[in-house]
C-alpha cells in the first residue's frame, strides 16, 4: 500500500472559544504528531474488512451521535488496523522479554487502550465501536470495556467531602481503587471486579460489579484517564493510570461544539431517561424546557467545562492518537504520535 501523505501545511481553522485558540491542534514541523485529514486517514484501512452492520452500529451509538457506517469505514477501520499492529508488536516484545529473563510461563498480559476526552464528546460510542471491531479480528481476541465512572466515590461520600459539584474532577475518583484494578489486570489476575455506575441514579451501583477475566484487550474509557498527579514531597510512589496503557486515544472537539452536544443530549434525555421516576434528573423532565436548559447550562459551565479546561484538555498532548471531531460529530482530523 502507498501511504497517504500527511497534511504538511498548517490548516487555517476558526476556533470560537478563547481556550481552544490557545490549544488548537496545529500541524507544525516540530510537532510530535503527524496530522491527517479524515480522507487521508481512511486510506490506511487497506483491506481491513467492514464487519459491522448498520443495525449493530445503531445499537452501539449513543443517544445524540449520528455516526454511520461511512464514518466507521473512514475512521475506525484504519484505527482497528493500526491497533492490530500495536497489539502484535506488544505480544512479540512481551514474549522476547520473557525469553530474555528466562521466565517460563504462558500467562498473557492484556493490551490496555485508554480513551479520554470531555463529558459529552462521544467517548462511549468510540469505545463500543472499537470493542466490537477489535473482537472481530481473525484471531477473535477477547475484548472488554470498562468505564471509569464506576470508580467515582459514591454520592454519599461525595456529599460528605462536599464534592457533589466536582463530579468528574480528579478528587472525585477513588484513584487508588482504579490503580489497583489496573495492576491486577496487567498482572494477569483472574476475575477482577470493576465497580459500576448508573447514569439513571447518578450514583455508583451498590454491590454490582463487572467481572474482567483475563481479556486479550481491555479498553478503559473515562474523562480522567490521562491525568497526571502532583508528586508528593514525602517521596511516596504515585503511579499514573496511563502508566498501564499500551495505547491512548483522546477524543477532541471545539469546546463550543461539546457545549452544544451536552445541551442537545440533555434535551433528548428529558424526553427519554429523565421521564423515568427513578432518574436522578427526573425533576428536570417536569419543569419547562427553558428552565431545564438553564440548569443544563449551569452543569456544563460550572462542572464539565471547568473540568475540561482545568483537567482534561491539558492531558491531550499525552495521547498517542487524537481524533478531532467537527460540528456534526464526525471526525475531521486525526493526529498520530510519531515520536
Ligand atoms: N443523565 C444521564 N442519563 C442517562 N444517560 C446518560 C446521562 N448522562 C450521560 N449519559 C450517557 O452516558 C454515556 C457517557 O456519557 P459521557 O460521560 O458524557 O461521555 P461521552 O459522551 O463522551 O460518551 C453516554 O452514552 C451518555 O449518553
Ligand atoms: C459520570 C461523569 C463524571 C463521567 O465519568 P467517566 O465515565 O468519564 O469517568 C459525567 O457523566 C458526570 O456525571 N458529570 C457531572 C456533571 C453532569 O451531571 O453533567
TrEMBL record:
ATP binds at residues 117-124. It is an enzyme of class 2 (transferase). This is Pantothenate kinase. NCBIfam families: panK_bact (TIGR00554). Residues 1-11 have a biased composition (Polar residues). SUPFAM superfamilies: P-loop containing nucleoside triphosphate hydrolases. GO terms for molecular function: ATP binding; pantothenate kinase activity. Its EC number is 2.7.1.33. It catalyses: (R)-pantothenate + ATP = (R)-4'-phosphopantothenate + ADP + H(+). Coiled coil: none annotated. Residues 112-256 form the Phosphoribulokinase/uridine kinase domain. Pathway: Cofactor biosynthesis; coenzyme A biosynthesis; CoA from (R)-pantothenate: step 1/5. It comes from Salinicola corii. Belongs to the prokaryotic pantothenate kinase family. Residues 1-29 are annotated as: Disordered. It is found in: Cytoplasm. Keywords: ATP-binding, Coenzyme A biosynthesis, Cytoplasm, Kinase, Nucleotide-binding, Transferase. Gene3D superfamilies: P-loop containing nucleotide triphosphate hydrolases. Its main location: cytoplasm. Transmembrane segments: none annotated. GO terms for cellular component: cytoplasm. GO terms for biological process: coenzyme A biosynthetic process.
Amino acid at each position: 500500500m502507498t501511504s497517504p501523505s500527511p497534511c504538511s501545511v498548517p490548516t487555517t481553522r476558526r476556533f470560537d472559544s478563547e481556550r481552544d485558540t490557545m490549544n488548537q491542534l496545529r500541524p507544525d514541523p516540530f510537532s510530535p504528531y503527524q496530522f491527517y485529514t479524515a480522507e487521508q486517514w481512511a486510506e490506511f484501512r487497506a483491506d481491513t474488512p467492514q464487519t459491522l452492520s448498520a443495525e449493530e452500529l445503531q445499537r452501539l451509538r449513543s443517544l445524540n451521535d449520528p455516526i454511520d457506517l461511512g464514518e466507521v469505514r473512514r475512521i475506525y477501520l484504519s484505527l482497528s488496523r493500526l491497533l492490530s499492529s500495536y497489539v502484535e508488536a506488544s505480544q512479540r516484545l512481551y514474549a522476547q522479554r520473557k525469553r530474555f529473563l528466562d521466565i517460563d510461563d504462558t500467562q498473557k498480559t492484556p493490551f490496555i487502550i485508554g480513551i479520554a476526552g470531555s463529558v459529552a464528546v462521544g467517548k462511549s460510542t468510540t469505545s463500543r465501536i472499537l470493542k466490537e471491531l477489535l473482537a472481530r479480528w481473525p484471531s477473535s481476541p477477547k475484548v472488554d470495556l470498562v468505564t471509569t465512572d464506576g470508580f467515582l466515590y459514591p454520592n454519599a461520600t461525595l456529599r460528605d467531602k462536599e464534592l457533589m459539584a466536582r463530579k468528574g474532577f480528579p478528587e472525585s475518583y477513588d484513584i487508588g481503587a482504579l490503580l489497583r484494578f489496573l495492576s491486577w489486570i496487567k498482572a494477569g489476575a483472574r476475575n477482577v471486579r470493576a465497580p459500576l455506575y448508573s447514569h439513571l441514579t447518578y450514583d455508583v451501583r451498590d454491590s454490582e460489579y463487572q467481572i474482567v477475566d483475563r481479556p486479550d484487550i481491555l479498553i478503559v474509557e473515562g474523562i480522567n484517564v490521562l491525568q497526571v498527579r502532583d508528586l508528593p514531597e514525602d517521596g511516596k510512589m504515585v503511579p499514573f493510570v496511563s502508566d498501564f496503557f499500551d495505547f491512548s486515544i483522546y477524543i477532541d472537539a471545539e469546546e463550543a461544539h461539546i457545549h452544544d452536544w451536552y445541551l442537545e443530549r440533555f434535551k433528548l434525555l428529558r424526553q427519554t431517561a429523565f421521564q423515568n421516576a427513578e432518574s436522578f434528573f427526573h425533576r428536570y423532565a417536569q419543569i419547562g424546557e427553558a428552565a431545564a436548559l438553564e440548569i443544563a447550562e449551569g452543569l456544563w459551565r460550572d462542572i464539565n467545562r471547568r473540568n475540561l479546561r482545568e483537567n482534561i484538555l491539558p492531558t491531550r498532548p499525552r495521547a498517542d492518537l487524537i481524533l478531532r471531531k467537527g460540528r456534526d460529530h464526525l471526525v475531521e482530523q486525526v493526529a498520530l504520535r510519531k515520536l
